[in-house]
Amino acid sequence: MKEKCGLFAAFSTSKTDVIPLVTIGLRGLQHRGQEAWGIATPTMNPFKQNGLVTDNLDQSALVLQQMKSNIAIGHVRYSTAGGTSLSNAQPFSINKKFCIAHNGTVCDLNSVNTKLTGKKPRRINDTSIVGKRLLSILKTNNFDWFKSIELLCDELVGAYCFVILTPDNEIYAFRDTRGFRPLCIGWHKKSKTYLISSESCAFSMLGAELTRDVNPGEIIKISNKGLESHSFSRGERTAHCSFEYIYFAHPSSVIDQTSVYESRRKLGQMLAEMYDLNADVVVPVPDSARPAALGFSEKSGIPMVEGLMKDRYAKRGSQRSFIQPKYKERLKINRWIMPVKSAVDGKDVIVIDDSIVRGISSKAIVKTLRNSGAKSVKILVTYPPIRHPCRAGIDFPTHEELIAYNTSGKNSDIDTINKKVGKSVNADFVGYNTVENLAAGIGKKPNQLCMACHDGEYGVLNRNLSNETSE
């Protein structure tokens, strides 16, 4: 199972009920997972629901009101395998010894399960298997949590963050040594509550402050003694997921001291310098490409207009097509991206998008704009060509799904890819970004980012995964 989810945890030192804080925090992370959500307290009996946090909230509230606790962890789920059954929703209770929730991917799941049971797993669910493996390690190490988590991480290959809640009213949170996935610490002053979140945007919804990021290879413990830190980093280079910055993360978040909004805006400005194109209007693909389109407009002098809008009154209009697990679900969402005819009719249009993965959305958008009277449609993309499967939790697990690979192979130059992808999506022009510009826009060095989906270099996962298929 591969998951790009959202984690949230809260520990109130003033004994304030944190269930409302966790519920709102999960709502603030809804962009990271829209299939299911759950909350666990020290009773070790997690509450879980399918769908969005706001779905059937009246019914959920009746249960949540009975879960009053000054300590809790929560999870919103986006899966790329393993089905959408409520049984796969998190947090999981591991034999009533602790509850665990996970964001990321464990690549060596068979190896972990073999150490646990001597057999390959019959049902693929990495969080549950990792939790049971951790319990086994804890039992042989006198429940020394810091030592046991470090030993567990020595066995894991992949990109991951975990939050754990114990019956002893303790929270543990940890991040892999490469820092693939974001994880941060916050403080809610009014209730005197420590917070852990996948992104800082959830803190903003609560009026809480971002304290700092959880460092790669760091374990955070929160208890009645306060906050403690333990590092198990061995000095590996970081490999922050570059896709977080251009698409997945909320634009208001700050990840590893980098503003997501400002990164996207700067990437748009750099595209304007890279591609000197003439047009009447610049149109962002809603919603993640808006800051980049603004930056492109500022630099190029071409006005930005809202030529495409999501129908937020439709059930699926405000959801994200990329993170829906099935092709038909993606199409349903794309159908609710509507053109503003008056903004594009009779005009040469430059569309700014964060990425082109499968090309499904791009084809639909080009067709929509042409049907609305656009004279020409050019697409500029803030992310370089995606030519390889992601082994770290993003939902493109095979070469055959990727339009850049299907049209141009693994090794074509960017001009060739631009032309072939442009033809495939029926655009007048397609222009991808480069790795160098992407890194500069984010404000990091190329070797601080994971770019395996572009260059096929899976060594950052400490394993040769180039020929493996996903579970």
UniProtKB/TrEMBL annotation:
The protein, known as: Amidophosphoribosyltransferase
Catalysis: reaction(s): 5-phospho-beta-D-ribosylamine + L-glutamate + diphosphate = 5-phospho-alpha-D-ribose 1-diphosphate + L-glutamine + H2O
GO molecular function, one term: magnesium ion binding
Function noted in UniProt: Catalyzes the formation of phosphoribosylamine from phosphoribosylpyrophosphate (PRPP) and glutamine.
This protein's pathway: Purine metabolism; IMP biosynthesis via de novo pathway; N(1)-(5-phospho-D-ribosyl)glycinamide from 5-phospho-alpha-D-ribose 1-diphosphate: step 1/2
Gene3D superfamilies noted in UniProt: 3.40.50.2020, Glutamine Phosphoribosylpyrophosphate, subunit 1, domain 1
Annotated active site: 5
Glutamine amidotransferase type-2 domain span: 5-225
GO aspect biological process, one term: 'de novo' IMP biosynthetic process
Superkingdom of this protein's organism: Archaea
Amino-acid positions noted as binding [4Fe-4S] cluster in the UniProt annotation, renumbered to this chain: 241, 390, 450, 453
UniProt entry tagged with the keyword Magnesium: yes
Keyword Transmembrane in record: no
PROSITE patterns: GATASE_TYPE_2 (PS51278)
Natural source organism: uncultured marine thaumarchaeote KM3_10_C07
Keywords carried by this UniProt record: 4Fe-4S, Glutamine amidotransferase, Glycosyltransferase, Iron, Iron-sulfur, Magnesium, Metal-binding, Purine biosynthesis, Transferase
InterPro entries reported for this sequence: GATase_2_dom, Ntn_hydrolases_N, PRTase-like, PRTase_dom, PurF
EC annotation from Swiss-Prot or TrEMBL: 2.4.2.14
Pfam families (alphabetical): GATase_7, Pribosyltran
Gene name of the encoded protein: purF
Cofactor binding mode and count: Binds 1 [4Fe-4S] cluster per subunit. Binds 1 Mg(2+) ion per subunit.
